[in-house]
Write a structure and sequence with these properties.
The structure holds two protein chains of two kinds.
Chain A: H1 2-17, H2 20-48, H3 50-55, H4 67-89, H5 94-99, H6 101-107, H7 112-145, H8 154-178, H9 182-200, H10 217-221, H11 230-252
Chain B: E1 2-13, E2 16-27, E3 31-36, H1 42-49, E4 57-62, E5 65-66, E6 78-81, H2 93-103, H3 108-121, H4 136-148, E7 154-158, H5 166-178, E8 184-189, H6 192-198, E9 201-206, E10 209-215, H7 216-221, E11 228-232, H8 235-244, E12 248-252, E13 255-258, H9 262-274, E14 279-284, H10 289-296
Parallel strand pairs in B: 3-8, 3-9, 6-7, 7-8
Antiparallel strand pairs in B: 1-2, 1-4, 4-5, 9-10, 11-13, 11-14, 12-13
Helix pairs in contact in B: 2-3, 3-4, 4-5
The chains are: A mainly alpha, B alpha/beta.
Chain lengths: 256, 298
């Protein structure tokens, strides 16, 4: 346990000292503020452009914004935050392979699976913390300006998107155990998501794919019930477990 | 007792055969020079010893225990310094050694005292900066400190002096000499003067096998002589000798070098005596590891 805790401590101190933590913090805080800000500014922006738009035949009447506008914005912005997260951390394993920093701790007796565990815990905790922060900020502003009650199944919808992020992180971990460069890791993880997206376009399998978790507009509006997402949730959780369980034997067999 | 024993080690990368039946034994408390050309397979052998590479066949044992690829318990006996040691650059040396100590399950108090002691030994005792700005030599020294942290029975250093300036090389060699009491040192190199300076034993690696192994004196004795230098008093005498013996080579006006069999040498001496050629100096050329290395790797 001691080696695992020490290595985890090293991971957090690395994230802090290399500036990744602060970038992540700023990113999620910025996104958290941006969602209600954009919603709040929309009518003002529309008014500003009213004259220009009127010239081209578009007329705005009584623009209504509420918490729903802000939450819609939240779910539009979160993919960008996830992409940034992936780009920041896609080299978390490969950097250590390339530089050879892992060699010394491995020859000191650190079990290889502990490397996978420590890095997975770091990624999941930072994603949860950042995502949670973004959610809380948006929730707070929305409650102040409007009423969050308008959005149905809000927590479930947010949790679904969080789980999707967890799946992407598990993909990063798995591809990092297989590949040696970060570009390959990002591409393969992105490719898998894209593949799941295309597979999800088939009506018969739609509810089984992890990308179903991204389709939460109808859940927010109350048109869809949370039960509809159950299959996708189970499949995604299983996929996450598979990714981690595959990573461990792969990294155990890796030659340095 | 043997600290390290390797039997019939084979390893290939794709179609490239790196090791083909390597046998090696390293006795306790020796400083063992592992000599070979660049690309001879020194690093591959060392990585196989610490379980980072999987050999195709063969057996490695450290302190009598078999080495397993991946997770090997034998690493508790080993301190390893790779050819280009890389550390977490945002840490300071004591922080890095603390991580290493914790990973190898050392006591908290022991980590503190041992780190202090080793950083003093390698001349980084006063260093408070992060590893980021360290020179190559400083990194090598920190590498030795981390390798010695858990009091290993075998210290493996992969070309520790290759990229260093003469001062840096001397510092590393002095450290290796100083730790001889505590541990056995196996270090790979292609700098033969380093081997002659500190090693008690050495082995030549060539074509994936050990071509020769023994104490430094034994290795030198493998070649009784590298030839002779004959210096005549007059230039004309040297001319006469060259005319009579085609295998003599002129290095200076009246200095000739001879490489060849003893019989041939005695016939030259006989000619010198019969023709009353005045000789200023006859000197046997001392065999060097370098000439042996060149012969072995030919």
């Amino acid at each position: 346990m001691k080696p695992l805790l020490s290595f985890m401590k090293k991971e957090y101190s690395e994230a802090a000292r290399t500036g990744k933590l602060i970038i992540l913090l700023l990113l999620f805080v910025l996104f958290g503020i941006m969602n209600p800000a954009i919603a709040k500014l929309t009518p003002w922006l529309m008014e500003m452009y009213e004259d220009t738009m009127a010239g081209s035949g578009l007329v705005f009447t009584n623009i209504q914004v509420d918490a729903m506008t802000s939450w819609t914005q939240f779910f539009k912005n979160i993919p960008m935050a996830l992409i940034a997260f992936v780009l920041i951390f896609s080299d978390i394993f490969t950097k250590e392979y390339k530089s050879g920093t892992l060699l010394l701790v491995l020859t000191k007796g650190l079990s290889r699976y502990k490397v996978v565990l420590a890095k997975t815990v770091l990624l999941l905790s930072l994603w949860t913390f950042g995502y949670g922060l973004c959610y809380i900020i948006t929730y707070g502003y929305n409650a102040y300006f409007w009423d969050n009650g308008i959005a149905h199944n809000l927590f479930h919808a947010a949790a679904a998107w969080w789980l999707f992020g967890v799946w992407v992180i598990c993909l990063i971990v798995m591809f990092s155990s297989l590949l040696r460069n970060s570009a390959g890791v990002s591409l393969c993880a992105g490719g898998t998501v894209l593949l799941a997206y295309f597979v999800g376009m088939l009506p018969k399998v739609r509810t089984y794919t992890p990308t179903m978790l991204l389709d939460i507009t109808s859940l927010l509006s109350g048109a869809e019930r949370t039960d509809t997402y159950m299959k996708a949730v189970i499949i995604t959780v299983a996929a996450c477990a598979v990714c981690i369980f595959v990573s461990i034997p792969v990294i155990n067999k890796k030659q340095f | 007792m043997e600290v390290l024993a390797i039997q019939n080690l084979k390893k290939r990368f794709g179609s490239k055969v790196v090791l083909c039946g390597l046998d090696l034994s390293v006795p306790e408390h020796s400083i063992f020079g592992f000599i070979g050309k660049n690309g001879a397979g020194k690093t591959t052998t060392m990585k196989a010893i610490v379980g980072l590479l999987k050999p195709d066949s063969g057996e490695i044992s450290v302190m009598g225990e078999k080495v397993h690829f991946g997770q090997t318990n034998t690493n508790r006996y080993i301190g390893y310094l790779p050819d280009v040691p890389e550390f977490y650059s945002y840490m300071t040396p004591p922080e890095y050694l603390k991580l290493c100590g914790e990973v190898s399950r050392m006591d908290k108090a022991d980590i503190v005292t041992r780190s202090k002691e080793l950083l003093e030994l390698v001349g980084l005792g006063q260093e408070r900066h992060r590893i980021k700005g360290f020179s190559r030599g400083m990194k090598q020294r920190l590498g030795i400190a981390q390798a010695l942290l858990n009091r290993p029975k075998l210290l493996i250093c992969d070309e520790p002096t290759s990229a260093l300036d003469p001062a840096g090389r001397k510092e590393i060699l002095d450290i290796l000499l100083a730790v001889r009491e505590q541990t056995t040192v196996l270090f790979s190199t292609h700098i033969l003067s380093d081997v002659e300076r500190i090693c008690t034993e050495a082995a030549f690696l060539n074509d994936g096998k050990i071509a020769m192994q023994g104490t430094i004196a034994e290795l030198r004795n493998k070649r009784s002589s590298d030839g002779f230098i004959i210096e005549t008093v007059q230039k004309e005498a040297a001319d006469t000798l060259i005319k009579a013996f085609g295998d003599l080579r002129r290095t200076e006006q009246n200095e000739l070098v001879f490489h060849g069999s003893e019989d041939r040498f005695f016939s030259i001496m006989q000619y010198v005596a019969e023709n009353r050629i005045s000789v200023q100096k006859i000197e046997q050329i001392e065999p060097t590891l370098e000439s042996l290395f060149l012969e072995v790797t030919k």
